[in-house]
Structure to design on (664 residues):
């Protein structure tokens, strides 16, 4: 699979985000919204950043700001050369997916395609099955007693749940970052080296691999002098970036993130979001979030889920309501329930 | 709708005086509980001190007559003979043989069972297996002792395998002692592994590790302190176990050169000599306490080493 977008000359640097944020070059929701020019400056994007895609992304970010006056948000959009295709190409594809825990159907009838090198956000109220769906995208649900997936989940066209498929291999290709940072009780170095070691990756220099992973996760400069120290000495935000670095180290194609910022403070959250933008160039990211601003800030596409009560049994089950580009979901959703949710009327 | 405030906070009660002093109140129930708990703690400490003193005083009497070096490094143990000799090495060799054999059985089986129960077994299987394992810990040691003597040594070793061995062997005693220790090691280390947060296992699985890798590289180091505690407890039980070795290892105090030989362990000697035919206050009687003191120090030393080991290698979560 070729990917022209990764060769974009105007790269988005995490450090430039942070610098811009601290310099105060951020929108503060004063009602004027964000001007595309200043925002593209923050992102360090090329001068041709006037494509409708980028524009609309920025606008919906600004919309969110109207809803949350006083909240400091800096926006990131896609560069013009990375224009979002109309349809996701379906690196992971869900067809009529039902997920059960025992007899309880947590997710019903989900059809969803995820796009290569895109960030897709799954949003919705609690209990709508978004985390459950996420966990069925790399067979993490296999570890849950009684969990079962019906329908078809494909990765690059191959059925992930086919009997001959090794779930461990699936998880190596599709990594996962969890809600609470869960570093191993080992040194920073060993946390990163763990994945390559257990998967038997052929590594010419583990030191280089560790440095590369930590650099990509924007953590290298902070930890390079204490690689042998315990990962538990890091702050929550650093631990979460370490977990991202650990995931990157096994060179997955997709990174699933299950509310990766919910246990972090706002500054750490900004850093993780910046990181996600950087990572999009090489990885496909699916993120579950409760934070709609976050979805608006980081995601190219957003899927809105909700919980429906089954008419017969009264059991609630998660369904996909609407899936579209983030700008559409946040500006002009087709479904009234989406509109209600994002405007805060329910959920 | 109107809100009526009747007994709101201090602000809405103008007639009320602000209290400036807290009322004193003795909580007698709490005092009683604290006293009971404190005496329980003190009692255990006093018992330990009492045991040490009870061992130490007769042992000192012993060491006034027998030099410590003769005791520790002498290779002939014959306290009842006319030309009495008090070299403890033969007893130590027998103890080392039975203990090592027991641990060779108990550590792999115990830890294997713990990993199975904590990492692989489905809840249903676990519910059945764990109680069965713990029943094994409740079998009286004298039963194990006869099992070792008659079935393992008599039937298996001599009748079936036709091994060159007498009525007793350190191997039979050690093997059965190992079986006896399995539940101790399995149960305690399983608890320790179970206490490792699930999130670490998930993190490991999400990186493409299989269950065995997760167990060995993540769960095991994280649970190390509990696992070492389990093994140390197992070692202490093996060294201190009396009934099995007294019955099945034999009572010839001589240096044990192979697993099929018989030998008298430290505890075996104590059990044998304490049967009542040595006069209180005699040298032979004091010998019991010297050996007891040695046992005590060995266990203490093992505990100390294990604490150091855990400090060094534990991965704290």
């Amino acid at each position: 699979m070729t990917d022209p977008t990764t060769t974009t000359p105007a790269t988005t640097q995490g450090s430039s985000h942070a610098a811009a944020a601290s310099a105060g070059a951020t929108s503060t929701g004063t009602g004027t919204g964000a001007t595309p020019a200043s925002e593209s400056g923050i992102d360090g994007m090329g001068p041709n950043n006037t494509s409708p895609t980028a524009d609309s992304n920025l606008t919906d970010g600004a919309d969110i700001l109207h809803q949350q006056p006083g909240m400091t948000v800096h926006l990131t959009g896609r560069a013009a050369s990375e224009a979002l295709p109309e349809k996701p190409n379906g690196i992971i594809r869900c067809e009529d997916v039902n997920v059960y825990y025992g007899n309880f159907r947590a997710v019903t009838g989900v059809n969803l395609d995820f796009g290569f090198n895109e960030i897709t956000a799954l949003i919705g109220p609690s209990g709508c099955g978004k985390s459950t769906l996420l966990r069925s995208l790399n067979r993490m649900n296999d570890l849950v007693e009684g969990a079962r997936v019906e329908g078809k989940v494909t990765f690059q066209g191959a059925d992930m749940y086919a009997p001959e498929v090794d779930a461990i291999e699936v998880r190596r290709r599709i990594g996962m970052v969890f809600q609470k940072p869960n570093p191993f009780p080992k040194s920073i170095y060993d946390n990163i080296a763990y994945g390559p070691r257990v998967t038997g990756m052929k590594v010419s220099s583990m030191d280089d691999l560790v440095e590369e992973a930590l650099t990509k996760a924007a953590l290298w400069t902070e930890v390079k002098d204490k690689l042998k120290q315990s990962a538990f000495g890091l702050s929550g935000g650093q631990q979460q970036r370490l977990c991202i670095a650990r995931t990157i180290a096994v060179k997955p194609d997709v990174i699933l993130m299950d509310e990766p910022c919910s246990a972090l403070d706002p500054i750490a959250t900004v850093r993780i979001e910046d990181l996600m933008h950087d990572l999009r160039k090489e990885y496909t990211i699916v993120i579950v979030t409760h934070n709609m601003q976050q979805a608006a800030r980081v995601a190219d596409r957003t899927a809105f889920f909700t919980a429906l009560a089954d008419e017969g049994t009264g059991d609630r089950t998660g369904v996909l309501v609407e899936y579209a580009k983030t700008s559409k979901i946040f500006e002009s959703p087709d479904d009234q329930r989406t509109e209600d949710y994002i405007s805060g009327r329910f959920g | 709708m109107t809100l009526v405030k009747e007994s709101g906070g201090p602000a809405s009660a103008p007639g009320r005086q602000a209290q400036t002093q807290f009322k004193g109140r003795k909580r007698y129930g709490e005092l009683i509980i604290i006293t009971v708990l404190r005496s329980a703690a003190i009692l255990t400490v006093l018992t330990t001190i009492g045991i040490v003193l009870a061992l130490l005083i007769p042992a000192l009497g012993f060491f006034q007559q027998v030099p410590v070096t003769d005791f520790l490094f002498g290779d002939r143990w014959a306290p009842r003979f006319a030309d009495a000799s008090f070299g403890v090495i033969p007893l130590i060799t027998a103890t080392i043989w039975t203990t090592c054999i027991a641990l060779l059985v108990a550590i792999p089986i115990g830890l294997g069972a713990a990993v199975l129960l904590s990492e692989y077994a489905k809840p249903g299987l676990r519910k059945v297996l764990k109680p069965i394992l713990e029943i094994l810990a409740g079998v009286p040691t004298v039963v194990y002792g006869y099992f070792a003597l008659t079935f393992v040594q008599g039937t298996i070793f001599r009748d079936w395998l036709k091994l060159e061995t007498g009525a007793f062997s350190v191997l039979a005693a050690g093997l059965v002692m190992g079986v006896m220790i399995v539940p101790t090691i399995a149960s305690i280390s399983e608890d320790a592994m179970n206490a490792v947060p699930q999130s670490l296992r998930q993190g490991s699985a999400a990186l493409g590790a299989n269950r065995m890798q997760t167990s060995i590289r993540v769960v095991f180091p994280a649970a190390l302190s509990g696992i070492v505690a389990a093994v140390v407890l197992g070692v202490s039980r093996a060294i201190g176990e009396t009934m099995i070795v007294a019955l099945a290892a034999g009572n010839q105090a001589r240096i044990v050169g192979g697993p099929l030989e018989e030998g008298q362990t430290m505890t075996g000697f104590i059990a044998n000599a304490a049967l009542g035919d040595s006069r209180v206050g005699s040298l032979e009687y004091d010998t019991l306490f010297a050996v007891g003191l040695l046992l005590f120090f060995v266990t203490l030393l093992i505990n100390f080493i294990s604490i150091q080991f855990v400090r060094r290698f534990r991965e704290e979560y």
About this structure: The first strand of chain A starts at residue 92 and ends at 101. The domain at 92-342 of chain A is CATH 3.40.50.300 (Rossmann fold). Confidence is low (pLDDT under 50) at residues 1-76 of chain A.
